[in-house]
Structures are given as C-alpha cells and as structure tokens.
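One such given next:
>
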Amino acid sequence: MADNTSTSEVESIFQTQKRWEELLDSDDFVRTFLSDVLENYIVEQRWYGGKSSQLKYIELAEFFKIQQKGEIYYGLILEVNFIEAFYQHYFLPIAFVTDENFAKKDRILPIEINNEKGFIIDATNLESFRKLVYERILTAEPIDTTKVQYHKSHLFTDSSYESSRFMGLEQSNTSLVYNERYVLKFFRRIFADKNPDYEMSRFLSEKKGFKNTPAYLGSINLVDSDGVNITIGLMQEMIPNEGDAFDYSLRELHKVFSNLEYKNIAVDQLPNTALYQRLDIKDIPPRIIDWAGLHLFLQIETLARRTAEMHIALGSEFEETAFTPTHYNDDYTVWLKNKVLYQFQNRLNAIENNIHKLEGLALDLAHEFLDKKNSIRKRFVDFDWTKLKGERIRIHGDYHLGQVLVKDNDFYILDFEGEPESTIRDRKVKQSPLKDVAGIFRSFHYAIYATIFNNAENYPFSQDLLFKAGEVLYRYITGLFLGAYVTETQNANLNIGYNQERIFILKYCLLEKAVYELGYELNSRPQWAVIPLKGISNIINH
C-alpha cells in the first residue's frame, strides 16, 4: 500500500503497475482489497445478509471476466467467513472508473493503475457494464460451454439496448430495468447450485407456457472451478402492475373495515363459518357480501385459480426429474421433522427471551404457546407419511401476497427463490402444494391484522371487536380460496390428497408457517407478534 496522502487528501491510494486486465492476478491487490477495505464496504450494503453475525474475514473464492470486444469487468465470488463458524458467498461485479464525480457512494477502493488514478466501484453503477451484460444475453449462443455462460430464451425477441436503470430498493438482490420492458436480477447471495428462481422461472415459462409469471428471457450462470453451475443473473419480462397483492389487500381491507361504521354492521350478528371449510361464492351469506363487497371475493377466487394453475404446471412433468411428482416417504418425513423441530425450539427460546416485550392479547397468547408447547411439538412429530396418498411437487416455497403482482384484476406470481432461512437444497425439496396455500393464508391473516393496526384511529370500534370481525372475514376468504383451488386442481388431476389429508397438511403447514413468522416478529416488531401467535392459537384450538 503506497500512502500518497497529503493534508488535503484523506484517502490512501493503492498503486499498481499491472494493467486492469491483470489486476486480479496481483496477490498484493487481492490482499489489500479483501482486507478492511471490502469488509467496511460490504457490511453497509442492503443485500448483505450477515448483519446479525460477526464477520471474521473475506476470501476470494472465484473470479471471472465479464467482457465483450476488449471491454472488461470482473465478477467476484466472495466467501464471507463468520466468527460463528459458518460462511456465505456473495457476488460482486467490479469496474474501474477515473471520473472524480462518479459513484461517490459506491466507491470500494481508491486506486492508481498504471499511473491513472481512479476508484474501484460496484459495476452495476456503470451504464456501460449494464449494456454489455444485456448484449451478451441478447447475442448468446444456444450452447455455451465457457466459464461464464449466457443464455437467451426463445421467448426473448430481438431488441437492441435502449436504456437501463436500477429497479429500486431491494433487500437481497440487485435488479436492473432494461428498455422499460425487461428486468435483470443479479443474485447477490450465491449458492453452489442453480438458483431455484432461475430453475422455476425457466421451467414454467419455456416448458409449461404458464402465463401468470414474468416470462423467462435469459440468464447468466458461472461454472466454478469444481464444475458446479452457479446462477448469477436472471432476465425476465417486466410486468407493468398496480403494486403487489399485499398492498392491494390493505387498500381493499381498509374499505371493508370502514364499512363496519358506514353500513352500521353489528359484528356480533355476522354469520360465521367453520375454518378450512371449502366454499363456493354462492355459499357466502348476503350479509357478508354486503359488508365486504363482491369484488373482494371474486379477486380471491381468481388468485386461487392462478395458484392452482401454477401447481398444475409444476406437477405435470414426467421427464425432468427435478420436477417430476413424487409420493411421501420416510426420508421426507425425517427431513421435515428435523427442520420444524429445530425451528420450533428456536422460537420457544425467542419467546422466553422476549416475553417482557409483549402485552395484552399478545402476552396471553404467548403464555398459551408456552403452556401448550408439548402438544404443539407433538403435532409436528405426528406426521405419519404412510397415511398420505397425495403427491409432492416442486412448489414456490415462500408464497405470500408480497410475491404476487396485481394487474387488470389478475395476478402474476414471482420470486421463486424459496424460504430465506432454508438452505438451497432444502428449497428444492418437493413438498405438498398446500404449503404454498398455507403461506397465502397466513398472508391474508397478516393483511387483516395489519389493516386493523395501521388504521386503529380511523375505526370507532374496540380492537377486540375489530379482531373478531377480522377472524370472521378470514374464514370466508380462506374458505372461498380453498374451494376454488381444490376444484381447479381436481379438474386437472393434480393429486393433493383426500379431504381429511388436505386439512391435516394445511393445518400442519399453517402451524409451521406461523411458528416461522414468530421469530421475525419477536426480533423486529414485538407488537406484531400477536398475528402469528393468533394464527398458532387458531390451529391448536381447532
């Protein structure tokens, strides 16, 4: 490290006589770059997922050139090692810029290369890099055997580069919008395998022609030094939309709860229905339709059909083994029980450590959870695969209203990466499609309670009364969804089991999902822990 600082210069500049094309061959550079410089940079990034752990050191696991006609950028696979004895891999593309006024927030290292001063930055900030990547996908050959493999789908009709921009604030990835028509998602957290989002998107679009997901257009994969195929980027069609289904639900539900006063509705006299009862739209009482509006229920039916169509597409493959349906067996049961019991114990500890943060109904429900922990654990253990006749298929795996876009009274499903807490292998395990149904049910529950929490001052009713109305509404929404979903899957011969089996799996998955949510709420916003706790209470008392 050459220190060229003067009193007017606060940054020390790394100097090298190597050319940019050879920079990663320099041990000096790699050592300097990976030390405090990169550590300080990476922990500040939104996509960095190790914020709750203590970083120990960073290693360069792999690097490769992203290039075209003499224009060169580097892709780095960084291995971030933690004091807690585990590691994560991240993708970082880098570029060298000399413009003093450019990318001030995204500078990683001041550097002088061959007497030219500048900065190493995240390459996604450079339009020239974004254009190069787009053109590499656009001109990709059908069979690519190089280390960095670009793929173009037959669904991607030729379109020359016009413009690019960042999509907006994301947590775990970086998405670029091209020509206001396409989206390229760079995966930041990298796994030594094909990303499920890439696999599922390509399968649904190219092989099954499923229309209610953004069409797969292309991808970038890296074949690492061990010959493992790693997904770096995924290009899809951009769907103009009116926002996601969770925000849409909040707007719709606000109208529903406002109607309690506007239509002078007596909550105690609202007709109720049993949980997990399959309903048709004609089964919903006129008083409920009058309160909530027919439009809401018609939308629920449409979403149920789109969910069923996704599962029918995923369950109708008999060649590609990654997608062929399979039955329940002992291996799956052992995997499932280990997973849920570990998670359950983790959440038990979280409740015991955070119970002082809870009050009112949340505190009562937390005590119920602790009092009934043995019976909840027993429910998780009582998974007898020999009684299950349905099939397991590849599923979305992290299905909720935030993963669904709304457009023209229709729904488009996206983000098939799977549950963030799960390993890449676990995300690809075939499961009951009812796990996705449970995910959307939990999301409805959240939307109802979030509406009550967010608008408490707008509704002249007690919280208890609003919760009561919300639980009635939840039963009709989920019953109608279940009715439309089961009818659609049965008509297509997707085997999701007989009625008792379906209810057992649905309740099992709902309990698992609510326990999963509990950890997040206790850590992030304890006042919302009442939502998963209420979900758990509904199931264990039903």
The chain has a mean pLDDT of 92. The chain is about 40% helix and 20% strand. Residues 128-237 form a domain with the Phosphorylase Kinase; domain 1 fold (CATH 3.30.200).
